[in-house]
Design brief:
Layout: E1 8-15, H1 17-31, E2 35-41, E3 48-50
Parallel strand pairs: 1-2
Antiparallel strand pairs: 2-3
Amino acid sequence: MLRKHGELATITDEVNLRYEVCEFLDQVKRAGKPALLFEKIKGHSTKVVGSWSAQKNASRWPLV
């Protein structure tokens, strides 16, 4: 649902969990932009969602 309502952006490039993900999330928080779904985390097989709880309607909507 977040994606459907334009409140989830997807990062498809591979990113470093320690450095790049933190920087992306910091910028999103400051700018009040959508939550982020990171599809490729270097060295990991799982996806990561960040800034989801910062969305005004996050508690009512599933992630996708």
